[in-house]
Amino acid sequence: MTTPATIGIDLGGTNVKTALIDANGSPLSRRVSQYDPAIGPDATVELIAAAVDEMRSERGDSVHLVGAGIGCPGPMDRAAGRVINAANLPGWHDVPIRDLLSRRLELPVAFDNDGNAAAFGEYWAGAGRGVQDVVMLTLGTGVGAGVILAGQLLHGHFDNAAELGHTIVVADGLACGCGQKGCLEQYSSASGVARRVASAIRSGSASTLAHLVERADANDAAAGVDATTVADGLAAAAIVDAAAVAEAVRAGDELCMRIWDEACMYLAIACVNIQHTLNPARVILGGGMAQSGALLLDPVRAHLAKQTWKLHNDQPEIVLAELGYDAGMIGAAGLAWRARGAAGG
Ligand SMILES: [Zn+2]
């Protein structure tokens, strides 16, 4: 008696997660491989194949593999299975990763972007179980997102649907790395919250985190980096992160409380807009911000109740993600199951 499984792969900028996932979305075996994308696509495929071989021999004859799925950073040509110019995969230009993997693993490979894969994971095996219409927001370095309507991932004409982190919540607001101003991710991502706190402290606002910002800026200065002009990867973001801000909120730090509450308010505004455009049953919140649990969930729910219309009681339920950092890997495996006609829908 062997258990059929698919391989779920989550290709990130610093690690690759690989797992064997059964038809119910449970990992049977898993590997996390640290890597540098600069090793190139061929070496990365070998790394994944080695992880699969290890898991296969670990499970002996008890598992047989029926497919694989991979979630990759975008932008991508989904139909062709190619990564085009992912910011998180430096040096990868127009790489046919789906077919490279498929040849090496000798299995059909499902392919989508990482935000969609994570959303599909939560829909299939996490906080979206039991409903057919869900939106997932991953509040991390940016705001990743995925939309599932009637059990299907929404891709759009340009394959770029669900870029909800770049919906505008503040007219003429903070500049975003995408070229727009006032994007949701500038206010409600884990990095955005940390950046706003650091910038308010630099402008003279009192906060218990002031010493951390000072230390981070000193590190940046020593490294020759101007922390106030670098959007990401600055020491301030690493030292003053969303977890530090959340802790300061719990301790009653007024600056952090204000910026945290604004993050929740802008998320609620995004949820109202999601409600009226997509009308999902649930909006699932994941990523670094969601680690703080009720500290995030309660104010988002309260702001949503206040901001939404009163014509009809159709606001989505706001819930926390359940799969954590496994969502992308499980979702990629789910897409492989879906390609075989399983995995809900
Ligand atoms: Zn943007």
Written overview of the protein:
- This protein is an alpha/beta fold.
- It has two domains: 127 residues, ATPase, nucleotide binding domain (Nucleotidyltransferase, domain 5); 189 residues, ATPase, nucleotide binding domain (Nucleotidyltransferase, domain 5, 2-Layer Sandwich).
- It has eleven helices and twelve strands.
- A five-stranded mixed beta sheet has the order 3-2-1-4-7, sandwiched between helices. It has a five-stranded mixed beta sheet with strand order 10-9-8-11-12, with helices on both faces. The chain has a two-stranded antiparallel ribbon with strand order 5-6.
- Strand 2 and strand 3 form a beta hairpin.
- It is globular.
- The two termini are 27 Å apart.
- The mean pLDDT is 93.
- The structure holds zinc ion (ZN).
Give me some keywords for this one.
single chain, Nucleotidyltransferase, domain 5, 5-stranded mixed sheet, alpha/beta, globular, 12 strands, binds zinc ion, 345 residues
